[in-house]
Amino acid sequence: MCLMFAFGRGVPSPDLIDAAGLAHATRRALADDSDGMFGYGFPGGHPPLREWVAERHGVDASRVMITPGAMQAVALALETLIGTGSGSELLVDRPTYDMALRAVAARGVTVRQLDLGARWPGPVPAAERRCVYAVPTFRNPDGATMPLPERERLLEQAASGRVVVIEDDPYRELRFSGSPLPSFRRLGGLDRVVHVSSFSKTVCPGLRVGYVITDARRIGLLTAAANRTYLTPSMFAQAVAHHYVVGEPGGPGGLDRAVERMRTALAARADRLCGLLRDRLPQAAFTRPEGGYFLWLRLPEPVTAADVVRAARRRDVDVAAGTGFFLTGGEQYLRLCFAAEPQERMAEGVDRLAAAVEDAAAGATSQQGPC
């Protein structure tokens, strides 16, 4: 469906992408690295990019794998950790990333949704294979960050049950305010944590380049699973990503410059969206995000997210219903992405959303046809 105002998907608007820097990185890759980027390459990823990620995170390259995006990394981790069948179990937060729920849905495993940072209620039922999936920093969908005591409690409980934790962490560097918290990887060690991240949120989602950091034995299992699944990732995209994140002193590219540019723009957009919502939708509740891409909006009762989504589509506005991020519940919530719309477009988009909430309250639930 073609909708004019895009608050639904977690992507940056094109003006936030450093197109000139990516073009320069592509030219450099073609000039300097054509032998490495034209072939099938390696299941574990482009070696220079693996080395760069390893150095940035202070680990050996044997503990790094480059993947076609973070979601592919999560899927491979689920395959190697819990596989398929009723004897396996995945513990997820409440709410959690909807694509993670979709990734596990076809596996036939048991999914338990709970407050991962709290004391888990009672003994965890026995399962042959179990793991935890969490987005602890600026969580998709609600932008929440798990406090340090809860991170430590989660890792303690996981360790006591010999449970591996998948840490999906693509928003960590996009903090607007406050102090960063240590990652699960730093707190729990690589033998108990599969750390996943991506350049999609900081550089460009079209690159489809993510990475995994975990212990070397598990990297071997993930690489074998990748080789069975897609042979090798794109060496072309990874070579471009490598040249971009390295950058040139005083020249284009560089991950730190990209992060700073993205962080500054996102903070301004988050402030703009919050101000508009306070003015146009005072009956809705939300917390100002401290980072990431998302704002979590609680609708006034008895309005439901499903009704607002339908009404918003009629007004050319795309928003995500909260129900997609829960196994059950979430009917009162919307996820709004503030990365996808420039500030100058937000006022009209929020005006239309406010009108859609009024429509939903009045019972206007008919759907818009395709455009």
Automatic annotation (TrEMBL):
InterPro entries: Aminotransferase_I/II_large (IPR004839), Class-I_PLP-dep_aminotransf (IPR050859), PyrdxlP-dep_Trfase (IPR015424), PyrdxlP-dep_Trfase_major (IPR015421), PyrdxlP-dep_Trfase_small (IPR015422). The keyword Signal does not apply. One of its GO terms (molecular function) is transaminase activity. Residues 25-353 form the Aminotransferase class I/classII large domain. Pfam families: Aminotran_1_2. It comes from the Bacteria. Keywords: Aminotransferase, Pyridoxal phosphate, Transferase. The keyword Transferase applies. Its cofactor is pyridoxal 5'-phosphate. GO terms for biological process: alpha-amino acid metabolic process. This is 2-aminoadipate aminotransferase. It comes from Streptomyces ruber. The gene is avtA.
